[in-house]
Automatic annotation (TrEMBL):
<dbReference type="Pfam" id="PF08268">
    <property type="entry name" value="FBA_3"/>
</dbReference>
<dbReference type="InterPro" id="IPR013187">
    <property type="entry name" value="F-box-assoc_dom_typ3"/>
</dbReference>
<feature type="domain" description="F-box">
    <location>
        <begin position="22"/>
        <end position="63"/>
    </location>
</feature>
<protein>
    <recommendedName>
        <fullName>F-box domain-containing protein</fullName>
    </recommendedName>
</protein>
<dbReference type="Pfam" id="PF00646">
    <property type="entry name" value="F-box"/>
</dbReference>
<dbReference type="InterPro" id="IPR036047">
    <property type="entry name" value="F-box-like_dom_sf"/>
</dbReference>
<dbReference type="InterPro" id="IPR001810">
    <property type="entry name" value="F-box_dom"/>
</dbReference>
Length: 385
């Protein structure tokens, strides 16, 4: 060896000693936790210790999620669906489920995170996906349920629940009492028309036999029945707020049904239950609920006038200071500034196929289900905490 050539053994030894000087907790909480999921999945091959930390260190998943929530640039997940006929959710021409991430700031960019063929190559119609901690619960019009983490490319079909004579509501969230993620499902065993008393001259009423069941992700292979709801629950989007057990999500949505109409939506906004109430053709009121007491207490937070009439619904996606991000009619993203009451169109998700990496133009009748999104390492099939 030439005298001036580096000694590779000594160099490697020096590098190893410098690596060994990094405390393991710092490596996990301040280095690995700040990397994108895509990089972490690649860096599993760097060495055994990194693989062990990424695959099994219990500190990494919650710390990575905490940092993802705190990042300045907000993200939205677009789950498109191409119905065969407008508002006909029983059929769809698409045989793929796609998950597209949209970042909006000074500029807008988007990426296709995952495109997965539907089971048995069947056409699917997606209905109101729900996001929680990087995972998305995707209900299908046929009654099937899927959970996807687009970042880790995990897509899991949930086991079938109890038979239902009509479409029920499905909630999805984190249950802090057990440190688990749960899906909660309303189903209908039957519907009976009860004839009115002729002497009273009233009309007949429908009585519903309603059931409720819960599935714990990563810990159970079947749905567990709970107490039946004492009332009819409309098949709308039920929401679980963090800090409230997931099993209560469907009941929590029913408590606010006085605000719910055909064009109204429920969601979670800033950790609180939120209702977007279509007051007029262009007017939308944003209500927030406090659930510290025995009953939900609603208060109106914003009164918004949109640029055009609402055909279907307005879904609040995110709040940042006095700014709200809204999805209107499952297609257009709007930003509302409470201080100036200004409404600005951020993105027409139908008209920007060039943002998705040169994929073919999207069909004009495509519906875009937008949900708020944070990237995470949370696993669908195993315990994370």
């Amino acid at each position: 060896m030439h005298a001036n050539e580096p000694n590779l053994t000594e160099a490697n030894s020096s590098l190893s000693s410098r690596q060994a000087a990094i405390p393991e907790d710092i490596l996990v909480s301040e280095v690995l936790a700040r990397l994108p999921v895509r990089s972490l999945l690649r860096f599993r091959s760097v060495c055994r210790s990194w693989r062990a930390a990424i695959d099994g260190d219990p500190r990494l998943v919650p710390r990575h999620l905490e940092l993802s929530r705190g990042r300045a640039q907000a993200s939205v997940l677009d789950v498109p669906c191409e119905p065969r006929l407008e508002d006909h959710w029983g059929e769809a021409r698409s045989k793929e489920m796609e998950f597209r991430r949209i970042r909006h700031g000074a500029a807008v960019d988007a990426e296709l995170m995952l495109a997965a063929a539907s089971p048995a190559n069947r056409s699917t119609a997606v209905i109101d996906p729900v996001h929680c901690d990087g995972m998305v619960l995707v209900p299908i019009a046929s009654g099937e349920l899927f959970v996807c983490n687009p970042a880790t490319r995990e897509l899991v079909a949930l086991p079938p629940g109890s038979p239902s004579v009509m479409r029920g509501a499905v909630a999805f969230g984190f249950d802090p009492s057990s440190n688990t993620y749960k899906a909660a499902r309303i189903f209908y065993r039957g519907v009976e028309l009860v004839e009115a008393d002729d002497d009273e001259g009233g009309e007949g009423v429908e009585e519903y036999d309603v059931g409720h069941e819960v599935l714990t992700l990563g810990a159970a292979s079947s749905w567990e029945p709970t107490d039946d709801p004492p009332y009819y629950v409309a098949p709308i989007r039920p929401i679980c707020t963090r800090g409230r057990p997931a099993a209560d999500g469907a009941a929590a949505s029913a408590e606010g049904l006085g605000l719910i109409g055909d064009r109204d939506t429920l969601t979670e906004l800033g950790g609180r239950l939120c209702c977007a109430h279509a007051r007029t053709a262009t007017g939308v009121d944003i209500w927030l609920a406090d659930d510290d007491g025995p009953r939900l207490e609603w208060s109106m937070a914003h009164r918004i006038e949109l640029l055009r009439p609402v055909a279907h619904s307005v879904l609040p996606l995110a709040a940042d200071g006095d700014e709200l991000l809204l999805s209107v009619d499952r297609r257009v993203l709007y930003k509302y500034r409470a201080g100036s009451k200004a409404v600005e169109e951020v993105l027409d998700m139908q008209r920007v196929p060039d943002l998705y990496g040169g994929r073919p133009p999207l069909p004009l009748r495509l519906v875009h289900h937008a949900v708020p999104y944070v990237e995470s390492l949370v696993s669908i099939t195993r315990r994370n905490y």
